[in-house]
Amino acid sequence: TIVKFEVTELPVHYSSKFIARKQCVVAGSDDMFIRVYNYNTMDKVVFEAHTDYIRCIAVHPTLPYVLSARLMTRLLGSGIGIKV
User: Fold this and answer.
1) Signal peptide position in this chain (predicted)?
2) Residue 71 belongs to domain spanning
3) Mean pLDDT over the full length of the chain
């Protein structure tokens, strides 16, 4: 079964990950928010993650952590870790 849902009206650039073991999709977008969707229940968690466009999301292969990074407009980009 293919499930389709809208993440945001703004673009999502290079920053979404499917996490099979948690049955969810994590997406960061140009509105600086990260969204976590359970694709079975369609539950979603939304939170403001950065002060600039989110360009990268990485998922730890075994631990429940996601790392995000913003567009690098300064010397170094910043990232936050969230528990999924």
Assistant:
1) none
2) 16-83
3) 76
- What is the band of 75 on the pLDDT scale with cuts at 50, 70, 90? very low
6 occurs within a structural domain: no
> What's the CA gap between 40 and 47, in Å, rounded?
20
- Identify whether 66 is part of a domain: yes
Provide CB contacts within 8 A for 40, sequence distance 6+: 23
Is the Cβ–Cβ distance between 19 and 84 less than 8 Å?
yes
Burial of 73 (0-12, 13-18, 19+ CB in 10 A): exposed
How many domains in the chain?
A: 1
pLDDT, tens digit, 9 for 90 and up, residues 9-38: 766 666 788 888 888 888 888 888 888 888
